[in-house]
From TrEMBL:
InterPro entries per the UniProt record, alphabetical: Aminoglycoside_PTrfase, Kinase-like_dom_sf, Methylthioribose_kinase
Main EC class the enzyme belongs to: transferase
Protein name per the record: S-methyl-5-thioribose kinase
GO molecular function, one term: ATP binding
Subunit comment: Homodimer.
EC number, UniProt record: 2.7.1.100
Family under the similarity heading: Belongs to the methylthioribose kinase family.
SUPFAM superfamilies referenced in this protein's UniProt entry, alphabetically: Protein kinase-like (PK-like) (SSF56112)
GO biological process: methionine biosynthetic process
Pfam families (UniProt xref): APH (PF01636)
Ranges for domain Aminoglycoside phosphotransferase: 40-275
Keywords associated with the record: ATP-binding, Kinase, Nucleotide-binding, Transferase
Amino acid sequence: MTTSDQQFRSLDEKSLVDYIKSTPSLSSVVGTSDNLVVKEVGDGNLNFVFIVSSPSSSLVIKQALPYIRCIGESWPMTKERAYFEATTLKEHGRLCPAHVPEVYHFDRPMSLIGMRYLAPPHIILRKGLIAGIEYPLLAEHMAEYMSKTLFYTSLLYTTTTEHKRAVAEFCGNVELCRLTEQVVFSDPYKVSEYNRWTSPHLDNDAVAVREDNVLKLEVAQLKSMFCERTQALIHGDLHTGSVMVTQDSTQVIDPEFSFYGPMGFDIGALLGNLMLAFFAQDGHATEENDRKAYKKWILRTIEETWNLFHKKFIALWDEHKDGSGEAYLPQIYNNPDVWQLIQTKYLRDLLHDSLGFGSAKMTRRIVGVAHVEDFESITDANKRADCERKALNFAKTLLKERRKFVSIDEVVSTMQQADP
């Protein structure tokens, strides 16, 4: 047993109050009075999450457990994920402070992070999408977050020496990477005890995924890229449950799966989950609201997210093209024609990577272990299965044919055809 293990203890509402009172970086935020209110709000799969409130202020405490919370001690999981989460929150917060909550405190032996509380009306984006709420600044904000965090941690901006050092540090987050490898790239394509789907409605669809050889070849390529390509410091789990929103605020949380991986995995996770939200809308439609207008808003948001990301990413690249980044040395790539070729190919490849990873993320949410509330909250099993089947069939088509798309507009048109 390591010293860190010996120092670890799981906190509850009472012991957390004592911990805060003895920790200046936390007590300076909420005080040390006896009327601190602690509420456990963790509805995720892995961790305890507490909101701690005093009459004047609040903060969030997140503590990693040495196992997967939604399954129990039979599936052990390293507590060190809290270190990578805190490190990424700080780094991404430095690069994009407008869209990442501030970290007040990190205790490595206790696997505990104290951070800014995102006060109401902030809600999880996924819940807002289920409720049919439009967020006019979502695409702009997410494009800013992704362009800055991905560009500034890539070789387009950093030296190979800096990059390799950072890659080496984040290689330590191997257990959560292996979890992703299993649940995204492996389990949906084989018989696994953890897989589930809307049964019996999708029984044949699940079998079809497992027997689709072309699909398996494509997923193998994506898994290889996920495991081998250290392109940038990615969030690693950037779905709509990892974003909190209001009409004018967008905050990215929960980067415990972070590591140096392919940029398209982050972009694809966000786009793929917006696509899931689109296909789920018919299951939430009522006589008063057929959700047709809202579906159009989701499609516009998907388009705008990629197009704004493209624009912002290119602008950062142009601004720093003579900087320290070693991917494309100015002495070699210093004429406008070759520069145009490089940027066009880079972003085209990134679009295709993003569409591939987005497809894989959609598939695992329908026939894999962890599903999404977008579909799960549709109580009518027949309606739910219809929505899921459309999403699954689109995901399969997108994965196999992603390289033929030149623009996100073409992808959106294909989505509309898949949802007549």
